[in-house]
Structure formats: C-alpha cells, structure tokens
Predict the structure.
Amino acid sequence: MKLQTSSRIAIYAVLELARDPTRQLPAAGIGEAYGVSIHHLAKVLNTLVRSGLVKSVRGAGGGYLFTGSVKRTTLLDIISLFEPVEVSEGTSRREAETQGGMALQAILDEIDDISRATLNSVTLATMLKLIDQGRFDRAPGEAGGRAGEKRG
Amino acid sequence: MGTGSGTGGEKPEIMAEEPAGYRIRAAAEADWRQLMHVDELVSGVLKPDYWRDLFANLSEKRLGERFIYLAERTGGKDGGATAIGFVIGEVRAWEFGSEPCGWVFAISVDPAAREGRVGEALLKRIQRAFKDSGVRIVRTMIARDNHLLMSFFRGEGMTAGPYIQLEKEME
C-alpha cells in the first residue's frame, strides 16, 4: 500500500508533536527531521490545525502543539484528512460490469477492508511505543524482515 | 477445580504489573457465574451453557495448557472481591501447520473498570503462563470491525501474523 506524501508528512508531524503535547515545535524543526520542504509541511499543518488535532501558536516561541488524544487518534484518522483510504479505482464502467471486473473488484475490496481495519487499529500511542522500542533497524525499502521484527 | 496452572484454593498471586486495587488470579470453578456476568456486560449476551461447559472441560484434561485468569477488584466494604475482567487461552499445537503457540480466545473487562490497565495486566498474566508452558508466540483472532479490541492488542505489541483466516458460506 502506498500513501500520498501529504499523509506521510502528516503522520510524521503528528508523531513529533504527540511525543510531548506540552511542547511547541516550529514547522522548521519538524521539516528538518524528515527532510520535508517547509512549503509542503505548512500546507499539511494547516489541514491538521483545521481538523483540531494540532494547534498553531503565534508569536515569538510559537509553533505547533498536539491537541488530540494519543490513545484515540489512529493512523486512519490522519490519513483520511488527505486521501481516501478505500475505493479501488482504475476500472472503466464497462470493465466493472463484467463478471471478471466484478470478481477482481471483490478481491480489491477485500484488500481495502484489511488495510482500513489495520490503519484504524493503530493509535498514535502504539506508534510512539513502536518507535521508542527501536524495533526498526533496516533502511526504508530494504528487503527482509517484517514490521515488528526485533533486533538481533 | 483448577484452571491452567492455578487452583481454586490457591492464594491469589500478586504481580508487579497489576494495577492498584485489583488482583489477578487463576479462576476457580466457583467463579464461572461471575465471569459469565462480566461477559454479559461486554457482549450483551448471557451464555450459561458456554461458561458451564468451559469450566467443566477445563477440569477434565490438559491442565497446564488451558488458562483462565480473572481480575477482581479488592477492598470492598464487606472485604469481598468483585470480578471485573477475564482472559481465556490455551496452548495449541500443529493446527494449521503451526508450531505450539498460545491462543488468547477471549479477553474482556467490565466497561466501568476500563482505562485502568486491567486488560494489559490480564494479557501479561496469560502470556507468562504460555511462556511457562514452553511456547514463545501468542496469537489471537479479532473481528475486523472490532476496532477497540484490535487497538488494544496492537497497543500490546501484536501485529499481523503469517496466517490469514478464510471462510465461505457453504452451499
């Protein structure tokens, strides 16, 4: 499954902020940590502010604060702000009306259901716990090992 | 009757990870009605036959491989304890081609007692029993739309395993 860049940036930003909800972080600090452009990050943060998950604090020493609940906010809550998580697209209307098209769609819907259920079950608290446990010691995209695999 | 490694007459074991005001102990035969009512609070369904059979079967065989633990609130006015949660599991071997592993069949906490780490303490207790039985993997199965329970297990470090459940309506 691939996520749009905005969704990924939003998850990273929210995790950085949720790690300490009393701490205000400037956008620049978040952007540097993940190599994200300030322009793109600002747009993402605006969406997060409108959703109520994040608060913008103006003035000297200002920045962004996490205002949601780490135990109740899921990855799906964040991703849904930026892209639809279900709805497999790409089939033409004619294709979709064929038995083959419908059979394929049923399989794609099955995959979507599992993806959605998974994203809806992982809270920010769980993500922060995973990160703090330092379980992931492979570079992104490197083959081998599954999420959650322990070191050694 | 003992369930798993515990017996009804044993002194409740106090564990370091237990939340204050509660204790976890192995369930005894006399506890079945209490646990049935906790289950009813959570599921909305009263299942006397299920609970009676569950405890009857546990007394018959495979002690040390099947486990029921209950969480109970202590320090009541009458000095008694009230069940507020339970966990049920069993070590199963070679089904679905799997090496022996511990299965958690059910875990429930009275909604009024949630947010107190009771479920976490119950899961830790049964995991310890599984490990003492010699297995290293714990598994469970969850309805895809049960977000609360799935979030709980995820929060406890469980991830998708190597098996996928399949089913169909038979013709």
Observations:
- Chain A touches chain B at residues 74, 113-114, 117-118, 120-123, 125-126, 129, 133, 146-148 (CB under 8 Å).
- Residues 1 and 36 of chain A are 21 Å apart (CA to CA).
